[in-house]
């Protein structure tokens, strides 16, 4: 799944995309801030034109650039959606 980051809130875009791929409500996912500084990620992606960050989160591979988030499921879907 690929999502565009339009509002400058990359972290929330990542969480929503992972929730959609996993088939769960975003509030059911572990807080992204438990893994790293989410505010720093927002600042990094907002400040740089040519940066890519990749990481695993909630059973998904995430790739984030200043304009797009791509999420790929690594395990079975957990929800009924």
UniProtKB/TrEMBL annotation:
* Residue ranges constituting the Halobacterial output domain according to the UniProt record: 13-71
Write down the Pfam families for this protein, in alphabetical order.
HalOD1
Q: Which domain of life is it from?
A: Archaea
InterPro entries cross-referenced by the UniProt entry? HalOD1
According to UniProt, the name of this protein is: Halobacterial output domain-containing protein
Question: Which organism was this protein described from?
Answer: Halopiger aswanensis
């Amino acid at each position: 799944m690929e999502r565009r980051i339009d509002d400058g809130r990359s972290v929330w875009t990542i969480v929503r995309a992972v929730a959609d791929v996993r088939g769960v409500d975003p509030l059911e996912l572990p807080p992204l801030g438990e893994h790293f500084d989410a505010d720093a990620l927002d600042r990094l992606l907002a400040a740089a034109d040519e940066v890519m960050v990749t990481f695993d989160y909630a059973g998904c591979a995430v790739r984030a650039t200043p304009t797009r988030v791509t999420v790929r499921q690594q395990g079975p879907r957990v929800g009924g959606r």
